[in-house]
Hints:
Elements: H1 2-6, H2 9-33, H3 35-42, H4 46-74, H5 76-93, H6 100-114, H7 117-128, H8 131-142, H9 144-162, H10 165-186, H11 198-204, H12 221-224, H13 228-238, H14 241-259, H15 268-293, H16 298-313, H17 325-353, H18 359-390, H19 394-420
Helix pairs in contact: 2-5, 2-7, 2-8, 2-9, 2-10, 4-5, 4-6, 4-7, 4-18, 5-6, 5-7, 5-10, 7-8, 7-17, 7-18, 8-15, 8-17, 9-10, 9-15, 13-17, 13-18, 13-19, 14-18, 14-19, 15-16, 15-17, 16-17, 16-19, 18-19
Amino acid sequence: METTKIGNYRWIVCGLLFFATTINYIDRQVIGLLKPTLEKEFHWTEVDYGYIVMAFAGMYALGYVVFGSFIDKVGTKIGYSISVIVWSIAAMLHAVVKGTVGFGMARGLLGLSEAGNFPAGVKAVAEWFPKKERALATGIFNSGTSIGAVVAPILVPWILGIYGWQEAFWITGALGFIWLIFWWIFYEIPSKQKRLKKAEYDFIHSDPDDELQEKPVKLKWIQLLGLRQTWVFIVGKVLTDPIWWFFLFWLPAYFADTFALDLKKPSLHLAVVYAATTFGSIGGGYLSSYFIKRGWPVLKARKTTLLIVAIAVVPIFFAQFAPNIWVAVAIISIATAAHQAWSANIFTIVSDIVPKQAVSSVVGIGGMSGSIASTLFPLLVGSLLAYYKNIGNIGAAYNILFIICGCAYFLAWFIIQMLTKKMKPVDFSNL
């Protein structure tokens, strides 16, 4: 009833962010799905493919800082548009390159530009939603990562079978340009959006401490490192992003090694695990928004939700005792869903504790930090798996990794709790 009275234009904005995030994840997954075809076409070795993946990962980390600062300077509409334009061009360039170096360059450009998605998305949510709805809105648009992970394995092989691998890059890359049409038609900051009713505008800016600061400002991200607010997000990303990438890249191997899952066939088990992340993303956003609507202080609601999520990951300790693959799927699905619930709230907490002008910059700094940690964590994963595989006990390696997964969120929550105990509002005049 409330939505009917005040209007729902802000949810159209949320829908745009959801579709952009879905396209973002489709574009980044294409090369992995085409890997067997491209290996034959270009005679790649695993080392060649590894360099291409590293090009994306390294530039993605850099892109968080580049686009985070850029979006705060030029505004969400222009900054997001440039990010999508560049990543769409980069995705399509994969169709015309002729070798490993070319793919590495195209992949690097894709990583650099795709990193603009979350700084822009979180900033847009801060501009368009009051604090009591931000986590839900973030959870919805963040669920695009899960939908993209489900759509790509269906769409890309279909295009490959009918047209060819070049067309897979052309068609998926073009999706971003279609999205841009709707973005330019429907997006403006609330103060400039003529379609927005006054009742909804007042609701969007109903927070007592809302500053209505929508003008871009110039901020040096190095100065932002002196703020506790920035470190809340850095900690929340550095300690948990590597866990998410472990879930993405090593779960198939875990199921194959432990339960002899045939990875050459479509896997319902993996589909269930990754589908669960959608419910986690939206559910985690809903939970903290529910607490706020019940009258809880915003920061208390976010941190309580993060604690609940950290507890939900703990059962992954017991994956080693799973009697069959479906029990393991159930346990791990809870953990992956919990991660996405964590992600929805850790992104939202930035817009709660940082003024709107600095949201993208802080998201950029934390995102870069999380990406760097995610690049280093596989060194530990690979070393553990290699050692225990050599002694014929690879299950022990996975057990150690699952224990790390279960502890990481509690450690992150504890440090966040310490950082926010005596945290003061940001005063830009002191920066």
